[in-house]
TrEMBL record:
Pfam families: WD40. Its main location: cytoplasm. It is found in: Cytoplasm. WD repeats lie at residues 485-532. This is WD40-repeat-containing domain protein. PROSITE patterns: WD_REPEATS_2. The keyword Membrane does not apply. Keywords: Cytoplasm, Repeat, WD repeat. It comes from Lentinula lateritia.
Length: 664
C-alpha cells in the first residue's frame, strides 16, 4: 500500500509540473501576440522611408522640363536655391515644378515661360527678375512629415565588478527575453529562441505523458482478479455499502406529511400494517424460513434460519440471515451451515452471538465479528444430539446461563456458551406407555418466565408433557409421565407461556398450536403437587377459527390478552381475549398466501411482528395501538379466564375432551 501511495504521489507531481510548463508556454504566447499587435498598430501611422523616397523621385521626374539641368535642383527640395537672393518665397507652392529653381539667363527664363520681364530699379535686388507668371496647371500636393534618418542607439556599456560576477542569475524565461531585447537581438532570433523553447516544452510534455502512461498501466486480468478478491477490499466495500443503505432507509426524504392527516383513523387502532419484507435473490431463493427471532440489544435486527435449497447445489445447505430494518436490500450478516438450520436464537447476554440448531443434530455458534462459518459447533456424537433440533432456549442470568436444546429423539441437552465440545447435562425423556419406543419426539419446548428447572414439551403425538432438569421436592428429574396435557390430534408445532408483565401473574397460562387446525389455551398444573397416577389435563379453551394447520402461536410481550397465530394459508391472526374469544380481532393474509411457519414479537414494545414464510420471505408487520394495553386489561383478562374455567365446568368437560369450551 505504501509503494502504491508513493507512486501515486510521483504521478501527481509529474502532472503538476506538466501543467506548469503548459501554463508558462500559454502565457508566453499571449505576451508575444500582444507585443506584435502593439507594433502593428504603431507602424500603421508611420510610413516607411523607402515609400517616401519613391514618392519624391517620381514627383521630380515628372516636374523636370527640357531647359532644366540636373545641377539646378537639389534632390528632395522643391524650393528655389539659396544662390538666388531675393527670390520670393510666397506662392511657390502654387507654381509648377518647372518654374522653381535657379534661372541662368533672363532670355532663357523668359522664353521658357513666355512672359514679359522688366528690369528692377532697386540695387538691392539687381539680380532679381520681376515677372508675371501664369501657371499652366496646378498639381495637388500633400504635406508629409517623415524622419528621414535614425539616430544610432547608444550601445550599453557592460561593467563587471564583484557584485555582478557573484550575483545569482535568474533563469526565468521572461527575464531572458527582456535581456535579449536590451542587447539588440533581432526579432527573428527571438522568435527562433522561443520556438526552440516551445519545442523543448513540448518534448518534455510528451515525455511526462509517457511516464504517466507507464505508471498508469493496464492491469492484467489475473492481477485485477486478485485485487478484487482481496479480503481488505471486500470488507471495505461491505461496510461502506451497509452504511450507505442505512443512511438511505433511516429517513424518507420524499415523505409527504399531509398524507394521512385527513384519514388519521385508517392506520391507528384496529389496523395491521406491513412494514417491509426481507428477501435476497442470492441467499434465500428456493428456501423456507424455519425459525425467527429478534435481537434483545438492537430492536432493528432480526434473524431467520433457512433450510436447504434444492436448486442451489453449490450453496451451503443451511443459511442464517440477520436482517436490519434500515437495510432492506440485503442481509446485515449471512452465516453458513453444512445442514439445514431448524431453530435459531440471539444470545440475550452477548449481542454478537447467534445460536442455531440443525437437522443433523449439531448446535452451531456464529459470531458476527467473524466470517460466515460458525466459530463453535458440537460434535456429531452420541454425547449430543443426533436427530433434528427443533427448539432451543437460553435460560439463566448474565453470570450463570445455559443453552437448552431438544431434539426429536427425546434428548434434552444443556450447554455452556463457551464450551460446545460436549453438553454439560443430557437427559432422555422416556415415556413407558409408548408402544414401539419409549422416546418422546419433541417438536416444541418452552420454559415459564423466571423458571430454569421445569419446562414443557410438545410432541409429535400431539401431547404436551412437563419435565424437570433436576430433582426437586416431590418430583424427579426427567419426564412427568402421569400429567398429560392431551387435546391435540396432531403434532404440536408451537408452545408458549404467558409473559410475567403487569399487575396480575398469568405465567401459568400457555398456548399450543397444532396441525389439527386449532390453538388451545392451557393452565399448567402446580409443580408442588405432581400426579402419581395417569391424569389427563384438558385445555381451558380451544380456538378453532383456522381452516389450515396452525404452525406457530405467541403471546404478546406487553398486552396480557393479545396473542398472534400463523397458519398454512398465509394468515396472520391477531386475537384479543378481552374483546372476543370467538374470532380474531384482525385477520391478515400475508404475501402470496403461502404458509407462514414462524411468528415472533419484537422484544422492545411488541409493536412489530416477524413472520417467517415458506417462500423464504421474512415479513415485518406493525400492529399499531393494539400493542398498548389499558390499565384494566389484566383484571379484564382475569375475569375472562375465570369465565372460561366456569364454562368448562358448566359444559361438563372431562379430561381428554377436545371440544371447545365455548361449545362451538
Amino acid at each position: 500500500m505504501s509503494s502504491t501511495a508513493e507512486r501515486r504521489q510521483q504521478i501527481e507531481a509529474k502532472r503538476a509540473k506538466l501543467a506548469e510548463l503548459r501554463k508558462a508556454r500559454a502565457d508566453r504566447q499571449i505576451s508575444d501576440s500582444n507585443r506584435r499587435s502593439a507594433e502593428t498598430s504603431a507602424g500603421s501611422f508611420t510610413p516607411r522611408n523607402n515609400d517616401v523616397d519613391d514618392l519624391l523621385s517620381s514627383i521630380l521626374r515628372e516636374s523636370r522640363g527640357p531647359g532644366a539641368r540636373n545641377g539646378d535642383f537639389d534632390s528632395g527640395e522643391l524650393t528655389p536655391s539659396s544662390s538666388m537672393p531675393g527670390t520670393p518665397l510666397m506662392g511657390t507652392s502654387l507654381l509648377p515644378s518647372s518654374l522653381s529653381g535657379r534661372a541662368s539667363r533672363n532670355s532663357d527664363f523668359a522664353s521658357s515661360i513666355g512672359t514679359t520681364l522688366a528690369p528692377s530699379t532697386n540695387s538691392a535686388t539687381d539680380n532679381v527678375i520681376d515677372r508675371e507668371m501664369v501657371p499652366r496647371f496646378l498639381p495637388d500636393l500633400i504635406d508629409v512629415e517623415q524622419e528621414l534618418f535614425e539616430l544610432p542607439t547608444k550601445k550599453e556599456r557592460v561593467i563587471y565588478n564583484k557584485e555582478v560576477q557573484t550575483m545569482e542569475v535568474e533563469t526565468e524565461t521572461p527575464d531572458l527575453e527582456a535581456e535579449t531585447l536590451q542587447r539588440g537581438v533581432s526579432e527573428i532570433d527571438l522568435e527562433a529562441l522561443q520556438a526552440a523553447r516551445d519545442r523543448e516544452l513540448e518534448e518534455e510534455s510528451v515525455q511526462l505523458d509517457k511516464e504517466i502512461e507507464e505508471e498508469i498501466r493496464e492491469i492484467p486480468p489475473e492481477e485485477l482478479a486478485s485485487i478484487l478478491a482481496a479480503p481488505e477490499l471486500l470488507e471495505f466495500v461491505d461496510s461502506t455499502t451497509k452504511m450507505f443503505y442505512r443512511a438511505i432507509h433511516d429517513y424518507d426524504p420524499t415523505r409527504d406529511y399531509r398524507v394521512g392527516t385527513e384519514t388519521g383513523s385508517d392506520e391507528s387502532e384496529g389496523r395491521v400494517k406491513r412494514v417491509c419484507e426481507f428477501f435476497d435473490e442470492q441467499y434465500t431463493k428456493n428456501r423456507s424460513i424455519t425459525d425467527v427471532d429478534w435481537s434483545p440489544q438492537y430492536p432493528e435486527l432480526s434473524v431467520a434460519s433457512y433450510n436447504k435449497s434444492a436448486a442451489a447445489l453449490n450453496e451451503p445447505d443451511g443459511i442464517v440471515a440477520v436482517w436490519n430494518l434500515h437495510l432492506l436490500e440485503r442481509p446485515e450478516f449471512v452465516f453458513h451451515s453444512q445442514s439445514d438450520v431448524l431453530s435459531v436464537t440471539f444470545s440475550p447476554f452477548h449481542s454478537n452471538l447467534v445460536f442455531g440448531g440443525t437437522y443433523s443434530g449439531q448446535i452451531l455458534l456464529w459470531d458476527n465479528r467473524s466470517k460466515h462459518l460458525p466459530v463453535l459447533k458440537t460434535p456429531l456424537s452420541a454425547s449430543g444430539h443426533t436427530h433434528p433440533v427443533y427448539s432451543m432456549q437460553m435460560v439463566g442470568t448474565q453470570n450463570a446461563h445455559n443453552l437448552i436444546t431438544s431434539s426429536t429423539d427425546g434428548t434434552v441437552c444443556s450447554w455452556l456458551v463457551d464450551m460446545l465440545a460436549q453438553p454439560q447435562e443430557t437427559q432422555e425423556l422416556i415415556h413407558a406407555g409408548h408402544n414401539k419406543t419409549g422416546e418422546v419426539a419433541i417438536t416444541a419446548m418452552d420454559f415459564p418466565d423466571n423458571e430454569t428447572t421445569a419446562f414443557w414439551v410438545g410432541t409429535e403425538e400431539g401431547n404436551v408433557y412437563q419435565a424437570n432438569r433436576y430433582d426437586r421436592a416431590g418430583a424427579k428429574a426427567g419426564l412427568n409421565q402421569y400429567d398429560v396435557y392431551k387435546a391435540h390430534a396432531g403434532p404440536v408445532m408451537g408452545l408458549h407461556f404467558h409473559p410475567t408483565s403487569g399487575s396480575v401473574d398469568f405465567s401459568d397460562l400457555f398456548l399450543t398450536s397444532s396441525v389439527d387446525w386449532t390453538v388451545k389455551l392451557w393452565r399448567a398444573k402446580s409443580l408442588a403437587k405432581p400426579s402419581t397416577t395417569l391424569h389427563a389435563i384438558s385445555p381451558l379453551y380451544s380456538f378453532d377459527e383456522s381452516d389450515d394447520p396452525v404452525y406457530d402461536v405467541k403471546w404478546h410481550p406487553t398486552h396480557p390478552a393479545v396473542f398472534g397465530a400463523v397458519d398454512g394459508s398465509g394468515k396472520f391472526d391477531l386475537w384479543n381475549l378481552n374483546m372476543d374469544t370467538e374470532v380474531p380481532v384482525v385477520q391478515t393474509t400475508v404475501g402470496s398466501g403461502r404458509a407462514l411457519n414462524k411468528l415472533q414479537w419484537d422484544k422492545k414494545d411488541g409493536r412489530r411482528a416477524a413472520l417467517g414464510g415458506s417462500d423464504g420471505r421474512l415479513y415485518i408487520y406493525d400492529i399499531g395501538d393494539m400493542a398498548l394495553p389499558r390499565e384494566l386489561e389484566w383484571t379484564d383478562l382475569q375475569k375472562t379466564v375465570s369465565g372460561m374455567v366456569g364454562g368448562a365446568q358448566t359444559n361438563g368437560i372431562v379430561d381428554g375432551d377436545v371440544r371447545s369450551i365455548a361449545g362451538r
